Amino acid sequence: VELVYMWDGKITVDTENKILLKADASHYPEIEEYIMKKHPYIAPEIIKLDVSFGSAGYKAFIAEKIKKNS
After folding, report:
1. Model confidence pTM above 0.90
2. What is the Cα–Cα distance from 46 to 7, expressed in whole angstroms?
3. For residue 36, how many C-alpha atoms fall within 13 Å in the half-sphere facing its CB?
4. pLDDT per residue as tens digits for the range 33-51
5. Between vectors from CA 18 to CA 20 and to CA 54, what angle results, nearest 5°?
6. CA 21 to chain centre
7. H helices then E strands: how many in the chain?
């Protein structure tokens, strides 16, 4: 992903990688803690999305996968 942002009063163009993790919400604190410890940025972009929408079939599929892996 190409980024354009202000840093130390200057316009900066840079690249970075984005990742998407899917996990049960109960694991969020540990995931955030791990990223904060390992990531070199002062404030890495960590966004939590609560999935309260989606097709019934997809939600059933995910629920079954979580159940099997618990």
Report:
1. no
2. 19
3. 9
4. 999 999 999 999 999 998 7
5. 30
6. 5
7. 2, 2
Residue type, 28: Y
The residues, any chain, with a CB within 8 Å of residue 4's CB and separated by 6 or more, are 11, 12, 13
Q: Please tell me the predicted confidence (pLDDT) of residue 59.
A: 85
Q: Which residue has the tokens 């995910």?
A: 62
DSSP 3-34: EEEEETTEEEEEE---------GGGHHHHHHH
Phi, psi of 25 (to 5 degrees): -55, -30
Is 48 in contact with 28 (CB distance < 8 Å)?
A: yes
